Amino acid sequence: MLPAPAGHDVTHWPMVIEAEESFYFKPDAGKLLLSPANEDPMDPCDAMPDDIDVAIAVDRFEHATTMPVTRVGHSWAGLRSFVADRSPVAGYAPDAEGFFWLAGQGGYGIQMAPALARAAAALLAGASLPSDILRQGVTEQALSPARLATTD
Question: Of 2, 30, 35, 45, which sits 20 to 30 A from 73 (CA to CA)?
Answer without folding.
Answer: 45
